[in-house]
Specification:
about 180 residues; about 30% strand; globular; DUF4863 family protein; alpha+beta; five-stranded antiparallel beta sheet; 3 helices; PnbB
Length: about 180
């Protein structure tokens, strides 16, 4: 079994456990307490998604250059309880970076919304790299944006892979970004 199939298999075991939970700040806390960076689940998924990027089957489609890439690994199917699995690679060393409120270099991705929320595994590739979640900056661990939430994905401190699970595969880029 290849690394892609292993990632899907490991994800199904996780999704079986969380399939009836609603993404939220409370779920994000639970995920980080239960499946934080020292857990077997986090370690397995992080290892497999890193392999996916290295092997070229994950986060392999440029969105806005080589430092902002994503790919859908699996569409929603009954085996994943209708969650899709997607990977995003973002690196804040991109020439298009901006400064955040703390004067850190930040790469900002495409504004989008989560009709049903999102479960997002954050895997820093560089020490200190973080993804901005709705509860603040997150290093190794999880974010869980609420249903109906909208945001720019942002990274700082280097490169991050985000492995995310979308209920019903729903994500929308049809929202106008705030001015």
């Amino acid at each position: 079994m290849g690394s892609r199939e292993q990632l899907i298999e490991r994800s199904i075991l996780f999704l079986r456990e969380v399939k009836d939970m609603t993404p939220s700040a409370a779920m994000e806390r639970w995920l980080n307490e239960t499946y934080g960076e020292d857990s077997a689940l986090y370690q397995d998924l992080a290892r497999l998604i890193k392999m996916g990027v290295e092997e070229g089957w994950a986060a392999n489609q440029e969105v806005e250059g080589p430092n902002y890439r994503r790919s859908r690994i699996l569409e929603p199917v009954p085996e994943t309880f209708q969650f899709s699995i997607t990977a995003v690679y973002m690196n804040s060393t991109d020439p298009r970076r901006i400064k955040d409120e703390d004067d850190h270099d930040v790469l900002r991705g495409q504004y989008h919304g989560h009709p049903y929320g999102e479960l997002n595994l954050v895997v820093p590739l560089d020490k200190g790299a973080q993804l901005k979640g709705l509860q603040g900056w997150q290093g190794p661990g999880w974010t869980a944006p609420d249903p109906g939430s909208r945001h720019y994905p942002e990274v700082r401190g280097g490169a991050v892979i985000a492995l995310f699970f979308l209920p019903a595969g729903r994500i929308s880029y049809d929202f106008k970004a705030p001015a």
